[in-house]
Design a protein that fits this description.
Helices cover 29% and strands 44% of the residues. It is α+β, with helices and mostly antiparallel strands.
């Protein structure tokens, strides 16, 4: 059975077409208007051979049933930290659900 790091590395490969090396874990708590909207650990990876980004922030969370959703946000543009990666993913999910 694959561990979390292997699954995240596979998600990065599937989403962004490159391999990666794990660097560190970063705890993140994102709040909005005093309410916690996301809390968890973001894994930071260096990317190998990606054309525009050197780093990626990745995590997973439970969805309906026993499924997991994997998120991998590239370190580029305004996304330069695990916290900003979580914010970007939340904004994207909110836009997609409208």
């Amino acid at each position: 059975m694959k561990n979390d790091f292997d699954q995240l590395k596979e998600a990065i490969r599937n989403l962004h077409g490159c391999d990666s090396t794990w660097i560190e874990s970063a705890p993140v708590k994102e709040t909005f208007q005093g309410q916690t909207v996301w809390e968890g650990t973001v894994q930071v990876f260096d990317l190998i051979g990606h054309p525009t980004a050197k780093r990626c922030y990745a995590w997973s969370h439970a969805t309906k049933g026993t499924k997991r959703r994997f998120v991998a946000v590239l370190h580029q543009g305004p996304v330069d930290s695990p916290e900003k990666a979580v914010r970007a993913a939340i904004v994207q999910e909110q836009g997609a659900s409208k």
